[in-house]
């Protein structure tokens, strides 16, 4: 997103957060997130409408009125207020407006998980799902098939997830596969990062030769937190080909302390 869109998104996020506070935060957040994705679905399929809602030649009040005409009877009061706010702001493009609504819908669901006390669980579930999709190439191929109907793809993933994850994880994952311009593995992993960010944490992706227990993960998170100066979430997976040790990735930085890495560096030095 360009600067104007980033500024508009930040403003809309502040509005969303203020609307989702209170005794009914869980239900309000869930309904708002799902409603925003309904709006995204409508805008995705109608270019003229996207352009009209982002038409800066029209007054902000006129764009707000258009939102009410189209969605006023279909959305929760919180979702309607967020869409009104988004339509009145200045975005760099109509597509950025839609992307912004996607971000806002996701944030609403994550806020619901937070209010439910499940944000950490949702973060972990999203990461685990991204790893499953990364390993299961056939499933991922089916979910990314652009010729397949969205309802069919959502049904396939819903069957995989049913009863195994929280309702917030399921809702986030189902809408992620509706974004054909995104790789679902990266998109769902990005959602896990968003969940960590809302908790004031940065993710460290850790690959080990043997599985880490909770105590070891907590100790590693503490050490990395001291190194990077911020709280860390450990997302770990096992790769026996490492032979021993681990690799750690934080952002673009990679620390390779695996036995496999040490052997490869030794070979390079002796060549």
TrEMBL record:
Q: Which InterPro entries match?
A: ATPase_OSCP/d_CS, ATPase_OSCP/dsu
List the membrane topology term(s): Peripheral membrane protein
Q: Which GO terms describe its molecular function?
A: hydrolase activity; proton-transporting ATP synthase activity, rotational mechanism
Where in or outside the cell? Answer: Cell membrane; Membrane
Keyword entries, A-Z: ATP synthesis, Cell membrane, CF(1), Hydrogen ion transport, Hydrolase, Ion transport, Membrane, Transport
User: According to the lineage, what is the superkingdom?
Assistant: Bacteria
Question: One matching Pfam family, short form?
Answer: OSCP
GO CC terms, sorted:
plasma membrane; proton-transporting ATP synthase complex
Question: According to its UniProt record, where is this protein mainly located?
Answer: membrane
- Tell me the function of this protein: This protein is part of the stalk that links CF(0) to CF(1). It either transmits conformational changes from CF(0) to CF(1) or is implicated in proton conduction. F(1)F(0) ATP synthase produces ATP from ADP in the presence of a proton or sodium gradient. F-type ATPases consist of two structural domains, F(1) containing the extramembraneous catalytic core and F(0) containing the membrane proton channel, linked together by a central stalk and a peripheral stalk. During catalysis, ATP synthesis in the catalytic domain of F(1) is coupled via a rotary mechanism of the central stalk subunits to proton translocation.
Q: Which NCBIfam families match?
A: ATP_synt_delta (TIGR01145), PRK13430.1 (NF009967)
Q: Which PANTHER family match?
A: ATP SYNTHASE DELTA CHAIN
By sequence similarity, the record places it as follows:
Belongs to the ATPase delta chain family.
- Its name, as the record gives it, is ATP synthase subunit delta
**What organism is the protein native to?**
Corynebacterium phocae
Q: Which gene encodes it?
A: atpH
């Amino acid at each position: 997103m360009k600067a104007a869109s980033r500024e508009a998104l930040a403003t809309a996020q502040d509005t969303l957060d203020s609307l989702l506070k209170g005794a009914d935060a869980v239900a309000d957040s869930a309904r708002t997130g799902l409603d925003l994705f309904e709006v995204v679905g409508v805008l995705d399929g109608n270019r003229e409408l996207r352009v009209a809602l982002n038409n800066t030649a029209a007054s902000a009040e006129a764009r707000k009125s258009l939102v009410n005409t189209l969605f006023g009877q279909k959305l929760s009061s919180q979702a309607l207020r967020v869409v009104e706010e988004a339509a009145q702001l200045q975005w760099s493009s109509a597509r950025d407006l839609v992307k912004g609504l996607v971000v806002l819908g996701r944030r609403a669901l994550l806020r619901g998980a937070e209010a439910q006390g499940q944000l950490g669980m949702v973060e972990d579930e999203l990461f685990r799902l991204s790893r499953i999709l990364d390993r299961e190439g056939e499933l991922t191929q089916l979910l990314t098939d652009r010729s397949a109907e969205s309802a069919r793809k959502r049904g396939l993933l819903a069957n995989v997830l049913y009863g195994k994850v929280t309702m917030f994880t399921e809702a986030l994952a189902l809408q992620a596969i509706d974004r054909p311009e995104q790789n679902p593995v990266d998109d769902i992993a990005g959602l896990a990062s968003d969940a960590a960010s809302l908790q004031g944490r940065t993710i460290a992706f850790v690959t080990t030769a043997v599985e880490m227990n909770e105590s070891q993960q907590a100790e590693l998170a503490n050490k990395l937190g001291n190194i990077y100066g911020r709280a860390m979430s450990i997302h770990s997976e096992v790769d026996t080909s490492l032979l021993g040790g681990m690799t750690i990735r934080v952002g673009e930085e990679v620390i390779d302390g695996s036995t496999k890495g040490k052997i490869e560096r030794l070979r390079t030095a002796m060549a």
